Amino acid sequence: MHPQRLTPKERLQLSRQVMPAQDAAQRRANFAEVNLGLPETLALIEADRCLQCKNPRCMLGCPVNVNIPRFLELLSQGRLPEAARSLLHDNALPAITGRVCPQEIQCECECIRAKKGESVAVGHLERFVADWARAHPEAVPVLTAPPSGRRVAIVGSGPAGLTAAGELARNGHDVTVYEALHRPGGVLVYGIPEFRLPKQIVDQEIDRLRQAGVKIECNVVIGRTYTVPELRARFDAVFIANGAGLPAFMNIPGENLKGVYTANEYLTRVNLMAAFAPDADTPVLRPRCAVIVGGGNVAMDAARTARRLGAERVVIAYRRTKAEMPARVEEVHHAEEEGIDFELLCAPLEILGTDRKWVRGLRCVRMQLGEPDASGRRRPVPIPDSEFVIECDMVVSALGTRANPLLTATCRDLKLNERGNIEVDENGLTSMPGVFAGGDIVRGAATVILAMGDGKRAAIAIERYLLETKA
Amino acid sequence: MHLITAKTRLSPNVTRLDVQAPRIAEIRRAGQFVIVRRGEGAERIPLTIADSDPAAGTITLVIQAVGKSTRDLVALEPGEAIRDIAGPLGHPTELITAGRALCIGGGVGTAVVHPIAQALARAGVNVTSIVGGRSREWVILEAELRRCGDVVVCTDDGSYGRKGFVTEAATDYLKSGRCDIVYAVGPVPMMRAVANLTRPLGVRTIVSLNPLMVDGTGMCGGCRVSVDGKALFACVDGPEFDGHRVDFDLLAERQTTYREFEQAAAARPDHDCRIGLGQR
Ligand SMILES: Cc1cc2nc3c(=O)[nH]c(=O)nc-3n(C[C@H](O)[C@H](O)[C@H](O)COP(=O)(O)OP(=O)(O)OC[C@H]3O[C@@H](n4cnc5c(N)ncnc54)[C@H](O)[C@@H]3O)c2cc1C
Ligand code: FES
User: Fold this and answer.
1) Could you tell me if the CB of A298 is within 6 A of ligand 1?
2) CATH topology for A249-399?
3) How far is the CA of B135 from the centre of ligand 2 (A)?
4) What is the CATH number that goes with domain B2-89?
5) Does A98 have pLDDT greater than 60?
6) ipTM of the complex as predicted
């Protein structure tokens, strides 16, 4: 128990606690998690930094409005079971979001303390409380309601699908999740690497859902094994959360050379198929020099993976400057610490190959920032006569993903927007009665927390729909 | 878990497995494939659905043991199980409903051609099949194909049927009369040779491509092939394409991406495989 409550002045005097991390030189060669987690003493001090604002702006910055001051207050008082219950009530997967949310543009950027110094480390504390809850499952029992007799199908087991499944099962509905791959978790298991999000955490969350009665059927590809109309006929409602799994290409010459990967393929081989192990059945190329094209989380993950697989030089090539990079700041920082080189204001023109059709280099052009474009960001424009070649034997394109048409092409009644994303109303309802959608398939490649928010919103709407359609 | 109900050896390194997968058995159509993962830690590999028995709830897989993953699969015995099977994937074959069709199968590709010939014959199409193998013992599914129409067997060494390549028999067939469509499945050089043969004749030619795959759902892009200069994904846009538009050189190159890796795996002590034709 914490001895006594601090005055606001005392709180203001505390400075932000630093997340302990694996040493950069050591972690370059392993896949173990980089951040080690705050020890309890530091977590309690950090929680005391929260000023318990009357109008907590951090909550507004959170896409799912987690009651941050409440769980921080409970934490600062050492009341961990209550802190855990409070957090889990608002956010079903805090051990995951605590690790992968872009806190610096959400809760932490709204934190009043960020105005004059450093924000409360909300993400690190979320992780701390969530990890405590994982270690003490008895403190946060899985809640279930009596069976409702209603059946809901969920397509995709990423954060959107898992969140909706949890909410619906909690209300007693019979929930079946269909997943195309052999393992549930979506991007959390095939995209985001172990060193950032240990797979054991995802597995544990999935076990909790199973305990709550959720059925998960892997190897079922909706659009092939069953169609959405077939699901609709067998279930009272359907939630589509199949993500944005269609890789974008650079559309430059040489993209079919051996040694060119999409980030999806590269990361799937290493993460889902465990190709990092030397005797794994699934192979992955181990280059001397890898160039990763892109500036988001995916690019950082691919670069840091290549580093861990033994590449001597890893380069991130990005068209704009570091300030415009969409990746989480912590990932950029960790990548720099791990010795990843950044070629900024650099756009790829052509991948060069050997006569045996292996990658030997990437021809690029130097960019400068011009007028702002539609997104408000200054548009990069090429500088004449500034071409140069980065010698390398692997190129990974990490340019984002779009909606995969596999499912939607077999369900013509689903209204799509011009980019192939499913159109929904403010409740996540699609153009088909009883069929809801959320996550990346609606938003395009977005974030874990937004996908979860969609899952929660759809679960509420499905709940209402089930009541309305009760026989 | 998918129980293996029967196992037959078709040629020295080609094995047929009948496996329980009721939903896939019920809805699969000619030309479609499944992604199979034998067990924990195993690779995901694409395999054509060679046949199915909806009543028994089984599908037939015909597997050529060329690498570790396929070798491990064919080591399974009836009563054992395959952990993961996803499908049916890919587009069904574009079938004609009348006229004359030539089906050409090279090596294990014959197992891909067989369901096509079956579907054509059922629709009332006049089917001739040409199947090739190194020598007599490497020719597979001849009896099954005979149920669909005429069969010409070719062996490289002349130990059975015609001596020579399937393309020579195909040339003779194409000279002998009308042909509305050709289906050719086998190693890349064979499919390329058939496409080159039919192109000047203007005979539509469908080939089934076998690039490396991971997910089989269009997510990774690893299976990309070039058709008419456009990058398409064999797993979702194919696996069958117009043979006159496919860049076979690129396909052959990309198939060798992990050759060194495979050689390293082959050098491990448990290895006993014989390098065969292209894996499928
Ligand atoms: C490498 C990488 C790093 C990222 N890092 C971050 C990060 O740090 N922070 C962050 O907030 N976000 C990050 N993101 C984005 C985030 O992961 C996604 O926005 C989020 O996972 C989307 O959730 P979802 O539930 O909509 O879909 P997904 O997680 O994509 O899950 C969809 C699931 O549906 C399955 N599926 C697809 N089609 C079918 C079908 N036809 N039938 C059945 N199942 C199907 C897929 O196999 C998959 O399992 C990252 C993404 C990637 C790729
Ligand atoms: S196998 Fe991954 S996209 Fe085809």
Assistant:
1) yes
2) FAD/NAD(P)-binding domain (3.50.50)
3) 34
4) 2.40.30.10
5) yes
6) 0.91
